[in-house]
Amino acid sequence: MQNVGVRFGGIVALDDVSFDVPAGSIVGLIGPNGAGKTTLFNCLSRLYECGSGDILFDGSSLLQVPRHLVAGAGIGRTFQNLALFRTMTVLDNIMVGRHSRTGTGFLFNSLRLPVVVREEAATLEKSQTLLRLLELESVAQARVADLPFGTQKRVELARALASEPKLLLLDEPASGLNHEEVGVLGQLIRDVRDRLKLTVLLVEHHMSLVMNISDHVVALNFGRKIAEGTPAEVQRHPELIQAYLGGAA
Amino acid sequence: MKRLSLIGYGVLLLVACVLPFLVSEYRTFQFTLVLVYSIALLGLNILTGYNGQISLGHGAFYAIGAYVAAVLMDKAGFPYWATIPVAGAVCLLAGFLFGLPALRLEGLYLALATFALGVSLPQLLKYHHFEGWTGGVQGVVITKPDAPEFLAVLGLPLNQDQWLYFFTLAITVVMFLLAWNLLRGRLGRAMMAIRDNHVAAEAMGVNNAMVKSLTFGVSAMFTGVAGALGAIAIQFVAPDSFNIFVSLTFLIGIVIGGLASIPGAIYGALFIQFVPNIADEFSKAAPWAIFGLFLIGFTYLMPLGIAGAIRLGLARLTGKEHNSQPGKP
Ligand SMILES: Nc1ncnc2c1ncn2[C@@H]1O[C@H](COP(=O)(O)OP(=O)(O)OP(=O)(O)O)[C@@H](O)[C@H]1O
Ligand SMILES: [Mg+2]
Fold this sequence. Notes:
The complex is a heterodimer of chains A (249) and B (329). Chain A has 249 residues and is of the alpha/beta class. Chain A has helices spanning 37-44, 70-73, 90-97, 106-111, 114-133, 149-161, 179-196, 207-213, 231-236, 238-245, and strands at residues 2-8, 11-17, 26-30, 52-54, 56-57, 60-61, 75-77, 167-171, 199-203, 216-221, 224-229. Chain A has two domains: 1-74 and 165-249, Rossmann fold; 90-156, no CATH class. In chain A, a hairpin with a 2-residue loop joins strand 1 and strand 2 (11-17). Chain B has helices spanning 2-22, 25-50, 58-75, 80-102, 107-126, 131-134, 149-153, 160-184, 186-196, 198-203, 208-234, 244-257, 262-282, 287-301, 305-317, and strands at 140-141, 236-237. The longest helix of chain B has 27 residues, at 208-234. The chains are: A alpha/beta (249), B mainly alpha (329). The A-B interface holds A 45, 47, 67-72, 77, 79, 83-89, 92, 95-102, 104-106, 109-112, 116, 119-120, 123, 141-143, 146, 159, 163 and B 178-179, 181-182, 185-190, 192-193, 196-197, 199-208, 214, 218, 323, 325-328. The structure holds adenosine-5'-triphosphate and magnesium ion (MG).
């Protein structure tokens, strides 16, 4: 992430933000409402164009990668306000998550050639593994829209993991969860990171979650980076305390 | 549930096979048209039901398919069966090309653009520079195919209507199998994902532009194949038989039959073939009023289409709590 800037008309959503996300780490991204956290995610998944700066992933620039190839490049994400395929089943949602890891086309699929049958079997198997990992087996055939919010959040996480990302972007995974669920989620994120050897960039307002599981924390305010360091260092940072308590938000 | 629907399809196919031996030639002809419409509706359902792109102009692709078949038979001496793949290929290309600029349009705007296609095509068919092929307003008359001789030798003499019915049935089965395969695989899921949330679909790696325009092409191909079969069955094509009403009828068919449902295409086809006739018998003076009543009645009683109602009914019968989700073939 190098000197990234984004503006919407007159609003500067991100201003010259730079930081690194070391492979295998969990990096927490915090900041008051409107700080630009989601905007930063949207730059990473190419939903927004960066006006300036560059984003390097695995040594090459992301800014040349078309939107639909970001997942294939190894970046998976969840959305702040859930972006599930609501009329589809839980299993189908997760199977769509593997789209970037499969490649058969219209003709082969219409004829259901053996390569398609094999690919589908592999997709199904991977997706079932994720169902088990996130304890979604009992609702596999349920329509996503019919499920409670917390379950939907797990479906979205499973869908993001289905593409076997190297970097996982989580936008407020704890919002709407109760205290106990947040604890479980924190454990789960660490677990998944260890097991699947992921790098995680975590946007979260839930401070105890961020501070507990992050190796490194970056704080934004009004589109600028105001602090960076270990959770302990950042917590003591005067500008951050100012941003959260000083009425600036 | 899976086994149940397999048995269901088996029974349906069996009924379809004995049907022409039980009913009159005219009824056989009508059921041939039901099969034709079911392919057209399946095509539109792939686009609108599964992919969420509304088309108010699919009659245009039906017309193109019909004219390709008619002109090839009349002017180029093609045997009737050989026109089917050509009609499909032409419409695949036409649909794909139309789908490319249509990518920029969403929802009702796409509906308007396709409506423009639907209203303008019949006029193009009348264009006098094309008259040499299309026959202008007169249209093209084609001869009805005979059953192949070997059937009589095998002791299975079929009359023309019966043969045409079975020919259409065979192609219908093939088209339904192709659609089923496509929709239950990764691209079918991608289509539905785009329909439900196109931003998330792209974030999952779906090439929205490609999938949407190819879906448009495939959809047009199905409808074009139906058009060719319809032309052969009716033995006549003329611009005025492909007015905008055809497009609207197809849209009615998929909504009544059941959006995003494969068997829904068959129910919808039965509806658009027979309900206008029934309405006509009720009242010669105001058949459309009766048709309208049927339409309102069906949408009121079966908000998820006939397919949705059947799914719910079956779920109650088998006592299983089954979700009434559309989108599962
Ligand atoms: N598409 C957009 N068009 C115009 N302005 C936008 C757009 N997206 C974000 N913004 C603006 O950019 C700024 C940063 O928004 P962003 O959503 O990134 O904040 P955030 O840090 O994710 O906040 P929150 O914690 O509330 O989710 C805000 O002022 C917001 O209004
Ligand atoms: Mg946000």
